Amino acid sequence: MAIIKVKNNINSELSITHADNKPAKSIVGSDIAVAVDTINDFPLGASDGDTVIVRDLNRGGTFIYDSTKVAGHNDGTNFNGWIRQYDGDIKLEYFGITSPSYVKDSKWVWDATVDKSTANLGTIIDPTVALDINSQGTGIGTGCMVRQYSGAVNVKWFGAKGDGVTDDTNAIQSVLNIGGNIFIPSGVFMVNYLTVFKETKLVGISHNVSVIKRKDNATTNKDLLVSTIDKRLDISGIQFDGNKLNNATVASGNYSGGLIISIGSGTIDGCYFHNFSHHCIQTGGEDRYFTTNTAEAHDIKLINNIINQGTTGEFGDCIRPARTRNLLISGNKTFGGYSSIRLNYYNHDVIISDNYCEASANDIGITMGLGYDCTITNNICKDSTGQHGYELAGCHRTIVDGNIAKNNIKNGIMVDKYSPPA
Predict the structure, then answer these.
(1) How far apart are CA 416 and CA 405, in angstroms?
(2) CA distance linking residue 346 with residue 327, whole number of Å
């Protein structure tokens, strides 16, 4: 530790230069000034008003001792009573945070009132604990750095890598816990499974480059992305990959699908779903998340998506609403699957239009059971190797108009006689 002492000066100015040849903050009228190399070298036995110059390039600066502030230690602006002298904003470098880039690419502001338990790495950092998603939020007391930003939250701020190898489950789930507008940048983000708890909007660059993929040997009987709250979930421009070749199959009890909106509302637009061993997109309460089977999704738009379930191995339906009202399914392209679009009981106020459905492998192109107030128009269902192009079973107040059925193994349009809903 290099020490310089200047003593017994009256109304004099002390100017000390850092190791990078930049002048330190000038001290006027100091009784004692000490120059040290790092923030670990503060002298012992200090008196109020003593001054220390720390020459470290990142964490250096001028510090004045105040014994009344010892308890406010925060490892950045207060070191056991040594108080940093600065102009303007508190910098991340004061706390030793010089990387990674996803932390440094925004402006941060110190807020002494923010509870450390709310630190999440992405928008709130507790600088007194390790800079990782598992350590943030474990601190005690108050005082955090708060990111200043507008627009969507980037999942990489929370430590997601998107390298196709790293398990990004915890990072992305941390963002979903906050909700709001969330950006999925370019990359392949490997996850176990994800749950939506708040109103959320997920936006990718496009489904060609922003990919959320189930990791190898993921937890069984867990769908990739699930919302079971009565809030909006909007998703656009993202690819969802079920990675079924590297996970347990339905035959072994693994009913792992893609997106589930059990209740609530939302729009799924311009996404790509593939490689799932169970249903790709499912809405409404006909699932294992609601044992009473009465939950109802509402105000759902499934538009301009591509769903490829394939025709070999195990797969569910491409799109499977149940107990959903005010539903629009339009402009989607589906390939394979058990059925292309299966409205499986008690859907109402539905429009199914302008979809292209090819090669449903086990059942029907577009089918609706026990529903009402539905319009099916301008769709193409072709090359079904299961049964019909279209099927209506126990439906009423339903219009089927301007559709094409071609090369299906059984009927073009089948009307069945199940009892309609009350």
Answers:
(1) 17
(2) 12
